[in-house]
């Protein structure tokens, strides 16, 4: 069991990230870094009937100014909540455990959150509750410089980073909703795993990390 991991802020983050979370006693979310586009901060990937889909939470655009994650505001100029939930329902309505967990996640697409960090944090807490796991979660008080120590996994959890390059992680395949149409798609949003495998989600995430610290 890892004692503490420094992780990036994410919107329904990928399985690679959640494997580390499940194998940690405590996690610290870095919230003082500047917001960056095209990261897991405000986007996730799922697979629907027509293939891979990218869901992105729009943020308020401040012209060329650097804004910390803590201060990043969610934009409601368009009805992205309805679109995201419609896409999630379309993708997973036929999955074995969607109806079991849907009511836990649906409220996030009805209530407006001001800050992205609050929205993502509550989603993380809801997921952990759904698999009945307690992890101590803290938000950074100040910016945490990147380091190459095992406790900092921010560099390896990125859309441009390949999970296969992480020697401590292995991809475990499971049956996905559209497996009859598409080959297995690794490292989707953790909700893909949850809706497809339900109570087995914890075991799969736990077994995805190859090394443990005492």
From TrEMBL:
Q: Which domain of life is it from?
A: Bacteria
What InterPro entries does UniProt report for this protein, alphabetically?
WbqC
Question: Any idea what this protein is called?
Answer: WbqC family protein
The record lists the organism as Carboxylicivirga marina
